[in-house]
């Protein structure tokens, strides 16, 4: 007695390959654009960190006393000065910040943050602190 062979037919194998091809064609464009999504998220993260650091610095300047001024308050009176205030390895490379000129103590200013090699920019608020 002959035993029947088992396996997939050629038509079944071709159909599986076609289905996998369609799935790949749909999924690949979703993964190709991950770089720009990561850059946008990074840009927003740095902007949020700079705005938060500015607010913390403003708080430190508001509560500092003559006896405890050391390292609690840095002068931040423009968008350019936020980068210097956060120097020492905190400001990431490749990011630049621009904005309006000097503002008075306790007022806010809108800064524009950009990432080299990435076209869109984002904005964040800083609070001017310290004496210029």
UniProtKB/TrEMBL annotation:
Q: Name one Pfam family in it.
A: N_methyl
**What does the UniProt keyword field contain?**
Membrane, Methylation, Transmembrane, Transmembrane helix
Instruction: Provide the protein name.
Output: Prepilin-type N-terminal cleavage/methylation domain-containing protein
PROSITE patterns in the cross-refs? PROKAR_NTER_METHYL
* Ranges annotated as spanning the membrane: 7-28
The family database entries (Gene3D superfamilies) matched by this protein are listed as:
Glycoprotein, Type 4 Pilin
Q: Does the keyword Transmembrane helix apply?
A: yes
UniProt topology in membrane: Single-pass membrane protein
Q: Where in the cell is it found?
A: Membrane
**What GO cellular component is one of the record's annotations?**
type II protein secretion system complex
**Gene Ontology biological process terms in this record:** protein secretion by the type II secretion system
Q: Which organism is it from?
A: Rhodoferax saidenbachensis
Q: Which InterPro entries match?
A: N_methyl_site (IPR012902), Pilin-like (IPR045584), T2SS_protein-GspH (IPR002416)
Predominant location category: membrane
């Amino acid at each position: 007695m002959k035993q029947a062979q088992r396996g997939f037919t050629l038509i079944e194998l071709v159909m599986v390959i076609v289905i996998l091809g369609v799935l790949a064609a749909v999924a690949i464009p979703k993964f190709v654009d991950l770089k720009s999504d990561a850059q946008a998220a990074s840009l927003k993260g740095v902007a949020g960190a700079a705005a938060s650091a500015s607010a913390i610095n403003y708080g430190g300047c508001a509560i500092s006393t003559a006896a405890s001024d050391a390292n609690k308050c840095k002068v931040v009176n423009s968008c350019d000065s936020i980068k210097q205030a956060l120097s020492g390895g905190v400001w990431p490379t490749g990011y630049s910040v621009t904005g309006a000129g000097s503002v008075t103590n306790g007022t806010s200013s809108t800064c524009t943050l950009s990432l080299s090699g990435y076209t869109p920019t984002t904005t964040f608020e800083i609070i001017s602190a310290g004496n210029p």
